[in-house]
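Worked example
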Amino acid sequence: MSDSPKRSSFLSSFLTTLTLAGAGAIGAYVAFIRPWHLRWGATEEEAKRPLLGDSLIENAKLEATHAVSIHAPPEAIWPWLVQMGQGRGGFYSYEWIERLLGLYPSNANHIIPSLQELHAADAVPLAPDGAGLPVDIVVPNRTIVMHADAPIQARIAVMQAGYYRRVTWTFHLEPIDATNTRLIERWRADWEPTFSNTLVIRALLEPGAFIMERQMLLGIKSRAERAWAMRERTNGQ
């Protein structure tokens, strides 16, 4: 019987320590990790710069801007962006994660001539059934803006159907010089502000989307640079 108060005290101390550790981890994520991944690779100026499509959502609850430098001109990167999509050129990200989500990824390692046409009112497929994001703006060799006002059906059971009310996804090519370019990617979203929606988006979708989008940018970078290097070597012969 004498051990009972000790066990109770130990359990209470353990739970207190666990709670404090959890609170500390959440605080560190909110204060440091989240601001970092919401603007990974982007300069302060790029993160704050208005891009085409921003005006489609006036008060976004989420805005993430990511960027990467690519040793290739915009016209050498553009074909990789135009052919993006499920069942098209893919998204150049982690195929094993996409399979876990029930997708059928196939990331192209070459430019596909038959997929080089993209126009406003087209759609970029996100799922095997063809559901995707409508294309709103296309400025060749410069900007693609996908935009949806209608709800996107949720694939997560705890998320209410139509969790995103409005979404824009922008890819912008900014020349640095004749052979180098900044690729800036921006995701903006608004949703029904229920507790479950906000919790799932903040805790799961934000970090999950960052993991996939970071790898996407790096995948585009490696493919475009490899193709451009081959072209430079060929022209130099």
